[in-house]
Each structure stands twice: as structure tokens, then as C-alpha cells.
Amino acid sequence: MPVKQDKSEQKAITPRSKDYSEWYQDVVDQAEMAEHSPVRGCMVIKPYGYAIWELMQKDLDARFKTKGVQNAYFPLFIPESFLKREEQHVEGFAPEVAVVTHAGGAKLDEPLVVRPTSETIMYDVFSRWIHSYRDLPLLINQWANIVRWEMRTRLFLRTTEFLWQEGHTVHQTEDEAEDFTKQMLDVYRQFAEEVMGIPVIPGQKTESEKFAGAVRTYCIEAMMGDGKALQSGTSHMLGQNFAKAFNVKFLDADGKEKFAWQTSWGVSTRLIGGLIMAHGDDKGLVLPPKLAPYQVVIIPIGVSPEEIEASQSKAQEIADQLEGEGVRVKIDGRDMRPGPKFFEWEKKGVPVRIEIGPKDLANNSVMTVRRDTSAKQVLTEEGLIDAIKEILDQIQTNLYQKALNFRIEHTLEVEDYKKFKKEVEGNFVLSHWCGSAECEAKVKEETRATIRCIPFGQAKTPGKCLYCGQKSDTVVIFAKAY
Amino acid sequence: MPVKQDKSEQKAITPRSKDYSEWYQDVVDQAEMAEHSPVRGCMVIKPYGYAIWELMQKDLDARFKTKGVQNAYFPLFIPESFLKREEQHVEGFAPEVAVVTHAGGAKLDEPLVVRPTSETIMYDVFSRWIHSYRDLPLLINQWANIVRWEMRTRLFLRTTEFLWQEGHTVHQTEDEAEDFTKQMLDVYRQFAEEVMGIPVIPGQKTESEKFAGAVRTYCIEAMMGDGKALQSGTSHMLGQNFAKAFNVKFLDADGKEKFAWQTSWGVSTRLIGGLIMAHGDDKGLVLPPKLAPYQVVIIPIGVSPEEIEASQSKAQEIADQLEGEGVRVKIDGRDMRPGPKFFEWEKKGVPVRIEIGPKDLANNSVMTVRRDTSAKQVLTEEGLIDAIKEILDQIQTNLYQKALNFRIEHTLEVEDYKKFKKEVEGNFVLSHWCGSAECEAKVKEETRATIRCIPFGQAKTPGKCLYCGQKSDTVVIFAKAY
User: For A274, phi and psi rounded to 5 degrees?
Assistant: First the structure.
């Protein structure tokens, strides 16, 4: 979408310290990422927001393919009866589905549910695809839109319709399925850390927080700029629950017919919300270079037509060189003052700004400004391209490190429940938990904090349950969450 | 999906001459491209079919972006009232929509239509995005799923849900919009010819065949292997029809507020059906290299473990070299006889097969087989990679030329209606048409042939209308169509 000229100047972004929620909404709005649509709870993803999603898709898709996963596409509609076949699954999803009751001018015999997730429709089909152990593993992924009727929506974070990928795999053995579930969680962890620049804590969900129909749910949890958690990817070990409900069987090498072992895993456009909240500042969005639609914006500056032409021409020359090296570049040659341009591209989180004016041209140099640190640096034309690439790498690393430091500063161990109630506002709190759903529910009821996950790889240390004081050897992460 | 071992051998594809429709279904089935789903009229696009769609998307998307088009995403659901705002549009689409009446456990105040196309939901949003002529042109594309309730469905060709792209643009002037409409049609023409290897006839739809709500619809029409037509892409000049219905206005440079001029254009997964029918033969699918998920399949052959290892190792070496040159390669090292493998990859239309056995290894050569001509050729290892790339280019060109020759052979000019009735079975028929909707409707009623398009660039030649005999200076293409 063309940017409205000079208007952007007038809008201010609410400071995070004043109202974090307003700040978020302002950034989404002013970085032109998305907006609410006329349809309740549904969003319009604007070109700039969608370009970020495309970059996420491209990177994730390549990672899935190296695991041998193939893309396919299954129907948007699911017969209502399918959803009911797995008992826990229907309990979890039935309250939030949209239902098509009429089509082609007539009432349907059986209502169709708009997919809230595709386990049921896919596994019915898988049951006919799979005959013997030679057909396994079956590794399928789908990029699709999903509908879950939400009461309170926030752009990207929670919308009635969203975009996602959902992987669904079928395996011969329990071990293989368990292993694949964890492999895919690790793909998400790597993507979050290496590409999004967001450190995450991988772990297991509690029974009450797991996916409806799964045996176990693994997740990665990220800390946002207000100390709250965002579940940023989940991978479910489905065991044989759905296999039994949908008759996904195979003839094993030993000649016996067996139920298969399944997994599913997904991430969605909610990651864009996470990206905003993990790195954004009071000037707006801050993008890690790997997910920036434009990694570099070049602003040619000049007053006289000759000056403008000279700086435009130099801008084009540098842009061509950067693009030749695979850098995504935007030249902003609009006929308007530089100030509002700086302001606008800062709001949009472009990692590096290059300014080229008459003085720079005279000195064979350019001015560069980093979005993450606001650091300005004059760079000579010689070696410029390599220097810019180096800066982009530094920004990618710095954003991760900054987010990690922030999380470390906002993570603490707490034993005392009174202290917990205070500290869980804006922090990740590590506490012992006895494992009972009742204690978990009470903490949630009294503090609105939930167990985000039981982190992997912890040594069993003796302690007392935060809530009931009973013996516990498990530490969990409590936090408020999006 | 893993291929079931040795089973493929037993299935035969119905010859085209026996039953073209059965042949089509067999190819879709046996090349593992798609299947019917448990949901009426919806299809499951299997990995092999979806991989072709991904290649199409990638190529088209790059072409759109060179035109300055940006991707975005709009809601799946459209308030019923929106659809009704443009009179012709609702007439065209209302009978085939699926309607969500319940969601989140309650009846909705206003039913939501599942998008049959997105003009209405997008233009309502555009009306708020556009303020002045500086915001124009607005060039948006969306990759999405679409639902149109179809009574008779055929995989890829006509399904209740399908995948597509829909471009929607807004312009300052009528001329600019008209020009862009034609530019996008030309993008489709180039894609069809250069990538799909299918010659197409660009032209204009008649009033009765145009898009519901458009001023004019342009299209490209392709001939399938049975002489029938497939509309393979449309580009609509919407004029100000929707702008007036959705209040898409802008302040022009002259200070006056004006309604904008709009276009929309799309192609869908139906193109995969066209690909099958334009090139397929009695052995199955024949893919143009540019859209082949695997351009080369290598079959290592051997009896003893040593032979197998040696041919596998050579296969890997050649595959690595080809992949280094950007060629998509599959090594089929499954433990089964070569015959069924040949048969299977022929069915899947892989352009080039390379066989490597003990004799080939001894001679430093390989056997290559072209899918399009069945020509076998022994190639020496020296210069092999270039030779394979050359063959792939030849296949791409040959498929286009073959399809063009076929169309030329099956296109004729007819003046006499009795002769027309006979010739229109399996041919494109060029005939004069007086321009009346009545004559067009009568011909359709009596022969089931429709006017596919009024081809561009024809010299006005005097003649007589095929049906009524009145004077006419316009030649149109009649054909039966999918």
C-alpha cells in the first residue's frame, strides 16, 4: 500500500510504560501491519505485515522440507461428526467453531465446521493412505487459514481467523513419534532464536494446558517486552488417540495390524505479534534483519534538482550492489522532507537506514543509522557493502542478546506464595509445583498466572509446592500470558 | 506420501480414446495428485499435486511482484450484506455460496458468506485506505482458498473449495485501469505459454460470459487434448461499478473527489487440470520441466549388492551435479524391480529418466529416456549435465509446439450452422457472430458450445452470423468447454 504522504508525522505511538496494550495496537497500526476488518474478530493483514509472514513461511518451509515433510492441502470444511470422534478433541474445540449450515441455497444434511485445526479431516484420509509399515512415516504439512471463534481478539495474537502451518505425521513406533515431536519443537526453537531473534524456553505443557486430544504437548515459551509469556509454537505427541478414533492402522513388518503413532505441530501468524512485542520500542517496530521486508532503507537527500539527482543516482548504485549480495533494499525517493521519512521507517523497524546527501557525496561516504541502538556511523564508500552486511549480522545477534538479557533480568525463583503474587506481574517465576491440577488451577484463579511449561533438562531438585507446600521435585515456569 | 510398493504396476490408465473423462480421473488418481474428500465437492490435494501448485505460485508471484503488486490477506468471511451491494455481483454469486449461520455456540446476527471471491470485502477496506490520488495505484494480490458450491465437481477443474490468487487493483483513470487489466492478462498468457507450455488465445468474453459485476472480462482460452476449451485465466475491467457500490473515492490532483477505477484478475488450481489435459497421454501425466517437482528421476539398476552400490553411488554423483545446476532430481533407490519404477514415474510425468546399470557403468555412460517422445538415448558421462539441461529445454519447447500444432489441427472456420454442429465436437470453431445475446444463447442451447472469447487483434472482416445470418464483422471462437 502506498504510504500516505506526511501524515505519518502527526501520529504518536503511546509509550510502552504508559500503556503496553495501546503501544502494541499503535505499532501494528502505524507500521501498517494489520487492521481489524468489518467481520468480527477477523483481521486484514496489510502488505507490510504479510511480507513478514512470507519471510517466516519461506524459512520454516525449508526447515520442514529438510526433515522430509511434504506440503499438501486438505478441505476447509469438516463434517461435524468427524470432530466428535475423539472425545477430548471435541470438548476442546466445539465451543469455538464456526458452522456452515446452508450452502448452494439449501440447508445442508450435515452441518460443516470451518476447520479449527485439521486432525480429524486429515486422519480420516490418512486411514486410507496407509496400509503397511512401508507407507510410514507419513510426513505432511499444510499452510492454511484457521477459524476459532474468539470473544476477545487482538491483532495477530488472537483473531477469529488466522494463518498457520500445521504438520501432521504418522509413525510406526511410539519412540519414533515421540522423537519426531521433539525434533519439530527443536525446529521451532531454532527458528525463534536464529531467525526471529527471540530466546525461548522449550518444555512440556501440564495436563490442563495440553492440546485437546494429545497425550503430551511440548511448547516453546517466549518473554515479551512487558514480561508476559507468549506460547510461540507447539508440538503434540498424539499417541494412538486419534489413530484409534480414525482407524489409522498399518500392517507391521511382523505381519500384525497395529494402530499408528501420530504427531501434530504448528505455528501461526501470532508469531508476528511476538516479534513486535519481543523487540519493539517506543519508536515502533524493530525487526531482526532476517525477517525485515526491507533490511536497508536508503534516503537520498538534496535541495536543488542537481543534488537530488546526484544522491538518487548514488542511492541506486548502492542499492544495486546490496541487492546483488542478497540484501533487501528500499530507496525512498518520495518528494518530501527527510524527517518524516526517517520517522516512518523507524516505525516500520527497518534495521539500517542509509542517508546520502551532498556532503556525503563530496566525502565519498554515507551516514548509517542502526534501528536497534540508534547508533549513527559515517561509512566510507570503500568496503561499504561488507560493512552494511556486518551491521545487519550484528543487529540480528544484538536483538537476540538483548531479549535474552531482558528475560534473564525478569526471571526469578520464588518459594513463597505471597512474594510470588507480586513477582509474577511482569516476570517469569520459577517455582516448585507438586503436579496437582488443583494447585495449578488455584494459582491461576488467584493470580491469573499459568504454568507456561515444565522446562526440559532440569535436574530433579527437592522443594515444596508453591501453593500447597507438599514435597515436589519439579520446577515450572509461571507467568501471565498472551 | 510414500508410494505403495509394486502396487502401481497393476493399475491401468483408461486410454483417452476410450473415455477421456475416465482417463483424466485415472491420471489424477494414479499420478497421486488429488482425491475426493469426505466433504462433498472438496478435494484433497496430495503432495505431488501440491508441489506443482507451489511451482506455479512461485513463478506467478514473481511475475506479479515485477508489476509492483504486493501480497496481503483479507478475511475468509464476508457479511451477507456486502455481497448484495453490487447488483450484478450478488446475482452471479448468491446461488453458490456457503453460509455460516452459527459460531461460538450461538446464532449470528448477520450470516457470513464464505468468500466466493473477495471484491466486496476488499473494496470496503480499500475505501478507507484510499484518500488521494497519491495513494494510487493500489496493487494488491491475495493467495487464498475460495468456496463456490458446485453441483457437479471434477478434481482440479471444478471443486467446491479451490486455491487461487486474486489480484485487485485501484487506479486513478479509466485508461490506466484498462491498461493494467490487459497487462495482467498478458502475464497469464506468458505464464501459460512459457511455463505451462500451453498456447492460449487471449480475448474478450461476451456480455453473458463476463464476470458478475465487471464492465469487461478478458480471458485466455486453452485447448485440451480432447479439443475442448479451458478458460485458464481471467482479468476483469471493473470500471467504477464496485467503486460506486463501496464508495472507493479519491481526491484527484485537480481537487475534485472522484470514484476510482478498478480491476481484478485470477488463476486457480484449475490450471493443474489444464496441465494434465493439455499434455497428458495414455501413459499418464506429462509435465513441462518448469512445473515438474522432479525434472529428472534416476533409477540405479543392479542385481548383486556390489552392482547396486556402484549404480547408487553413480546416481548420487550425477544427482549432486544436476542439483548444483538447479535441476530438481529424484533418485529412486527403492528395493524393487526397475520396470514398475519406470511405469510409475512415467505416470507421474517426470520429463527425463536416467537409468544406470552395470553396463552403463562399464561404458561410462547412462541411458536417458524422454517422457514426451519416449526417445531413448545413451549419453556419455562427459558433458552429461549440459546434455540433460539441453534435453529439458527441448522438452519444454516441444510440449508447447505439440500443443500448438494440435490446436491448429483442431481449429477451423465454419460458416454453415449444420456443419458447425458437427465440427464443434472436439474443435475450436471460428465463426461470425452478430453480437446478439439471443444467437449466443440459442447456439449454446442447441449445441452446448459457448463463445469462448472474441480474440484480440482481429481485422474486421465482413461475414454473416453463424446463427441468424445477419451481417457481422466479428469472428469469435466457439467450443465446448470445461
Answer: -65, -40
Sequence-ordered alpha helix ranges (H) in B197-269: 241-246
- Residue to substitute from B39, B58, B91, B160, interface A, most A β-carbons within 10 A: B39
pLDDT the model gives residue B10: 58
What's the CA gap between A321 and A298, in Å, rounded?
Answer: 13
**CA-angle at B105, arms to A116 and A445, nearest 5°:** 85
Q: Which of B1, B8, B139 to mutate to test the interface with A (most CBs of A within 10 A)?
A: B1
Contact flag A112-B39 (C-beta cutoff 8 Å): yes
The neighbour count for residue A365, using CB atoms within 10 Å, is 17
d(CA B467, CA B448): 14
Amino acid type, B385: I
pLDDT by residue (tens digit) across B220-242? 999 999 999 999 999 999 999 99
A75: preceding bond cis by omega (within 30 degrees): no
Strands (E) in B174-283, as ranges, are 200-204, 216-223, 229-239, 249-251, 257-259, 261-268
State residue B416 phi and psi, 5-degree precision.
-90, 130
β-strand pairing of B138-147 with B161-171: antiparallel
As given in the structure block, the three cell numbers for residue A465 are: 509446592
Predicted ipTM > 0.90: yes
Given CB atoms, is B39 within the 8 Å cutoff of chain A? yes
> Could you report the per-residue pLDDT of B136-165, keeping only the tens digit for each?
999 999 999 999 998 889 999 999 999 999
Helix, strand, or coil here: B5? coil
Distance CA B283, CA B337 (A): 19
User: Nearest CA of chain A to the CA of B294: how many Å?
Assistant: 14
Between CA B289 and CA A9 the distance in angstroms is: 51
Range 8-37 of B in CB contact (< 8 A) with A: 35, 37
3-state secondary structure of A245: helix
Do A76 and B147 lie within an 8 Å CB cutoff? yes
CA B478 to chain centre: 20
At residue B89 the predicted structure's pLDDT band, cuts being 50, 70 and 90, is confident
Helix (H, G, I), strand (E, B) or coil at B471: strand
The answer to whether the beta carbons of residues B100 and A114 sit under 8 Å apart is: yes
pLDDT, position B151: 85
- Residue A285 carries which DSSP code? -
Could you tell me if B101 lies within 8 Å of chain A, comparing CB atoms?
Answer: yes
